[in-house]
């Protein structure tokens, strides 16, 4: 009996198919979903996707084996990635990876005996300003060292709660795969807007008073809301999507009454700037 | 010309409380204004702004939109139109779209809705790489909020216009950043590039007219619509207009995202951000990811716009400025990038599939100090057999770091005939936690 037999899984797969004008487009998210159920892409999952999309199993297999995020072997609760592309490798990613391999006693793309951690060296994950970078279940752990990496995997194996540097509280790899299939887990409001490096240029500009043309002398733009007080909210994690939507609706109702004077025409601002 | 060296527009609200929510973002005023205009007027505004694709190639965005056939008698004109956002940011060194979508997904969603109106598409896909879970969450939440607020869905703002947006997660394949491979992937296939022509503007997703734009390009649209083409074009240089996000990484004091008018130089960026880390001297850098030929300290004053970097023999690419200091082995770096291209080659064409494999074999010997007589010529010959002969730009890109590194640092490749790179440049000395470089280490490159 496979987990794929449940009605919920079938419904979810049909819901994915319904998003697309042509159903084959659903294949990648469907494979993410079956991984969230099975812990890997199983032969049964291949058959099921093929059946639902009117494809051959060979077609589905051909796709599943092309993409590195689809796994043929069971993945642990925590997929731990270490970036060893050039910049991260040079900045210490190679040292982190070899330390973890030794510490966990596994090779690349292998799982620890307790089933908790799968270690993999990953390619550039678009966080080079935080090198060396690691991921857990595809969440960012920035500016790592061999020691911090060991502490991280030890915490995960011991069941301690960890939060990503720029992201949410770490769940499990299977739960993450479900989000990738397009089923939100309600954690979007956790974590910060940005890390320090992401804000480096912005802060420098603020310190020096550097602004885009037309913004000189304006502390805030009509379209942005820096002059609005931050909305009082419960702690990150509790801010539900419903609450956010309710808030958004209020916002919209208010703004619709003043839509036409919401911006100064660009031409006027340009003139004002040149006059200075 | 703008006076300020940094001009945060896209990155402006990244430090705001809950910046990723609609509350913090605003009310999609640019979309309202765009919907009151004729679609062709919106296209004209984007054309006039001079916005060029921010994903690497620099193709004029408005012109790309203008290629979508709007006359039903033209080829493809009777089919639905699609917008696909390339959010598959994977070029090594590139890290601008991910923080943008994390901090401000709504500017992208608003740009998507405006672009759909302009090209007369009812359906858009944001193809985001799968390895960035929290960014995907923020995109999903932004799209959900926008639907709930009536900014997406049927009859947006009572305009009679429908816009549907699907956030689609990829599954780990660099090649899917290539626009036609991305389309195959989005159709549920292996991500392999397609022969062009036909171009996606005529036969793209589901063989229907499709615009594919980078995240930053689409995110730049709302401010252009709102503040005007002239405002946007007042920043930047003659042929490279507007502001853009430069990403600084590596052996620098303050890595990060710096939004500036096109044409700023690396020297200016370094001067304002604190320069190289203590004890570091710039040895080599990439202007726009690993697929753009390496530059050196000689090129600090090259204007970082499309023409300036091309004039220096490289490419602006994704403006991913990866800086390496004198402790770094260029042979090691080039090998690692080449291993990446080998791993990510889709296998469709022989020069790239086989060629990257051979390149790795040769470079491995050189890194280990076991190079053979003629290996440098062999590398150049291998590159020559890939460049211009591969099916897509991945193969060409794979040769860039190699040929440029040999051009600037041939000595280091020569040294690979007898001395391992890790002896010449102890790898521990390049790490983020290394003590400031000693004079002895500096001497190694002299």
UniProtKB/TrEMBL annotation, chain A:
Residues 251-261 have a biased composition (Basic and acidic residues). It comes from the Bacteria. GO terms for molecular function: NADH dehydrogenase (quinone) (non-electrogenic) activity. CDD domains: TRX_Fd_NuoE. SUPFAM superfamilies: Thioredoxin-like (SSF52833). Its EC number is 1.6.5.9. Its cofactor is [2Fe-2S] cluster. Residues 209-276 are annotated as: Disordered. The keyword Metal-binding applies. Keywords: 2Fe-2S, Iron, Iron-sulfur, Metal-binding, Oxidoreductase. The keyword Calcium does not apply. Pfam families: 2Fe-2S_thioredx (PF01257). Belongs to the complex I 24 kDa subunit family. NCBIfam families: nuoE_fam (TIGR01958), PRK07539.1-1 (NF005721). This is NADH-quinone oxidoreductase subunit NuoE. It comes from Mumia xiangluensis.
UniProtKB/TrEMBL annotation, chain B:
The keyword Flavoprotein applies. Pfam families: Complex1_51K (PF01512), NADH_4Fe-4S (PF10589), SLBB (PF10531). One of its GO terms (molecular function) is NADH dehydrogenase activity. GO terms for biological process: cellular respiration. Keywords: 4Fe-4S, Flavoprotein, FMN, Iron, Iron-sulfur, Metal-binding, NAD, Oxidoreductase, Quinone, Translocase. Residues 331-376 form the NADH-ubiquinone oxidoreductase 51kDa subunit iron-sulphur binding domain. The keyword Metal-binding applies. Its cofactor is [4Fe-4S] cluster; FMN. Its EC number is 7.1.1.-. NDH-1 shuttles electrons from NADH, via FMN and iron-sulfur (Fe-S) centers, to quinones in the respiratory chain. This is NADH-quinone oxidoreductase subunit F. It comes from Mumia zhuanghuii.
């Amino acid at each position: 009996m496979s987990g794929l037999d449940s009605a919920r899984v079938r419904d979810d797969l049909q819901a994915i198919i319904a998003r697309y004008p042509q159903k084959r487009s659903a294949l990648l998210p469907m494979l993410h979903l079956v991984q969230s159920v099975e812990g890997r892409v199983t032969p049964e999952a291949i058959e099921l996707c093929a059946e639902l999309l009117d494809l051959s199993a060979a077609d589905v297999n051909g796709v599943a084996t092309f993409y590195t995020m689809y796994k043929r072997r069971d993945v642990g609760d925590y997929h731990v990635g270490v970036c060893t592309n050039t910049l991260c490798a040079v900045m210490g990613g190679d040292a982190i990876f070899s330390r973890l391999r030794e510490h966990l006693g596994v090779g690349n793309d292998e799982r620890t005996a307790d089933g908790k951690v799968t270690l993999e060296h990953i390619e550039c994950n678009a966080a080079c300003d935080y090198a060396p970078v690691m991921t857990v279940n595809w969440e960012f752990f920035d500016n790592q060292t061999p020691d911090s990496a060991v502490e991280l995997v030890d915490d995960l194996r011991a069941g301690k709660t960890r939060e990503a540097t720029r992201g949410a509280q770490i769940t499990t790899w299977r739960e993450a795969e479900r989000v990738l299939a397009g089923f939100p887990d309600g954690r979007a409001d956790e974590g910060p807007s940005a890390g320090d490096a992401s804000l480096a240029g912005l802060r420098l500009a603020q310190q020096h008073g550097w602004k885009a043309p037309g913004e000189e002398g304006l502390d805030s733009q009509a379209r942005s809301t820096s002059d609005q007080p931050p909305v009082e909210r419960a702690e990150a994690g509790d801010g539900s999507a419903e609450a956010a939507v309710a808030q958004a609706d209020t916002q919209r109702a208010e703004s619709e009454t003043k839509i036409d004077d919401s911006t100064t025409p660009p031409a006027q601002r340009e003139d004002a700037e040149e006059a200075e | 010309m703008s006076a300020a060296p940094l001009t945060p527009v896209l990155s402006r609200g990244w430090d705001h409380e809950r910046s990723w929510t609609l509350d913090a973002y605003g009310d999609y005023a640019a979309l309202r204004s765009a919907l009151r205009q004729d679609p062709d007027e919106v296209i004209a505004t984007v054309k006039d702004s001079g916005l060029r694709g921010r994903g690497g190639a620099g193709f004029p965005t408005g012109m790309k939109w203008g290629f979508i056939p709007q006359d039903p008698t033209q080829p493809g004109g009777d089919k639905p139109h699609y917008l696909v956002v390339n959010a598959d940011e994977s070029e090594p060194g590139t890290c601008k779209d991910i923080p943008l979508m994390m901090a401000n997904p709504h500017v992208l969603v608003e740009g998507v809705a405006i672009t759909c109106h302009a090209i007369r598409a009812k359906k858009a896909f944001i193809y985001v790489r799968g390895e960035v879970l929290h960014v995907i969450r923020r995109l999903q939440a932004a799209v959900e909020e926008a639907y709930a607020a009536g900014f997406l869905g049927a009859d947006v703002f009572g305009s009679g216009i429908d816009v549907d947006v699907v956030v689609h997660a990829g599954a780990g394949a660099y090649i899917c950043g290539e626009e036609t491979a991305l389309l195959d992937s989005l159709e549920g296939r292996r991500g392999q590039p397609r022969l062009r022509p036909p171009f996606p503007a005529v036969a793209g997703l589901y063989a229907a007219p499709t615009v594919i734009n980078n995240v930053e390009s689409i995110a730049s649209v709302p401010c252009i619509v709102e503040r005007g083409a002239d405002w946007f074009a007042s920043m930047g240089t003659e042929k490279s207009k507007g502001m853009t996000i430069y990403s600084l990484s590596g052996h620098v004091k303050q890595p990060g995202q710096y939004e500036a008018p096109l044409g700023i130089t690396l020297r200016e960026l370094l001067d304002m951000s604190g320069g190289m880390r203590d004890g570091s001297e710039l040895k080599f850098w990439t202007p726009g990811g690993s697929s753009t030929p390496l530059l050196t300290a000689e090129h600090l004053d090259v204007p970082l716009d499309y023409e300036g970097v091309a004039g220096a023999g490289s490419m602006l690419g994704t403006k991913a400025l990866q800086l390496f200091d004198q402790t770094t082995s260029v042979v090691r770096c080039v090998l690692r990038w080449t291993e990446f291209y080998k791993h990510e080659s889709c296998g469709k064409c022989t020069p790239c599939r086989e060629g990257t494999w051979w390149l790795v074999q040769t470079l491995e010997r050189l890194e280990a100090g076991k190079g053979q007589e003629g290996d440098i010529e062999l590398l150049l010959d291998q590159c020559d057999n890939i460049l211009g002969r591969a099916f897509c730009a991945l193969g060409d890109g794979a040769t860039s770091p190699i040929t440029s590194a040999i051009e600037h640092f041939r000595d280091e490749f020569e040294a690979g005939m007898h001395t391992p790179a890790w002896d010449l440049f102890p790898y521990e000395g390049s790490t983020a936690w290394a003590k400031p470089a000693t004079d002895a280490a500096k001497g190694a490159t002299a």
